[in-house]
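It would be a great kindness if you could assist me with a short task in structural biology. The full record is reproduced below for your convenience:
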Amino acid sequence: MNSVGSAVRIKYDVQGKAGHTGSTPMRKRKNAVDATALIGKKVRKLGKQYEEQGMGRASQVEINTIEHNGSFNQLSAKAQGLIDFRILGENTPEKVMRDFGEIVEGVEKKTKTKIRPTVVSKGNPVITSKKLNSIIIDVCNQKQIKYLEMLSYAGQDTGYVPAKQKTMIFIPSKGGSHNPKERTKRKFIETATKVLTGTIQEVLKERFKDSYKCEVEGIVTTEKDRGTDEHTKQLQQGGREV
């Protein structure tokens, strides 16, 4: 996994004007629901642009009317919406807010409403360790395991771990995430375990490459003993450096 996405979550309130669907001319309507519908359409278009550019995705996930009794002939004065932006690569919360600000400005002008957005949460995408990813690829090649280097649109706990080097190993699943039908075959879990253990072994080799030990019948000699009489004696008795 070469990149882990983050999210910018926005809640917005729309202030329009109540009215009757029959007696209010179209040009004079300030229907809050019209504003939410138009925002949803424009956010979806922006999300597609982000996806094509490798910068994320976006969707409006919920809308609500306020002080509306469910009547077919009533124009809504107030409404709310929730939007989830998934950001990747060079995208940032600041860019998302600028892009959404342009959407809000255009919708306010077109629907004659007032829109107040509030950022509920935000975070920056994470670029994973190139070094660790390279080790994973080497392990896969050594074990003749097929792999795909990819990015995660979904936010992951890994993104919040305060480690200098971090990455993730994903395995195939079917049925969709956050879905009761989601299933992962045992063979994929076993394969991922082999890759993980192989990666850990390579990392440890790299981490302790300047250390030495000598094993003879349960006796371990460390680097500080190297070159001493005891070290030489152990080698003569059949010990080997590893």
About this structure: Residues 3-125 form a domain with the Alpha-Beta Plaits fold (CATH 3.30.70.360). Residues 56 and 100 are 14 Å apart (CA to CA).
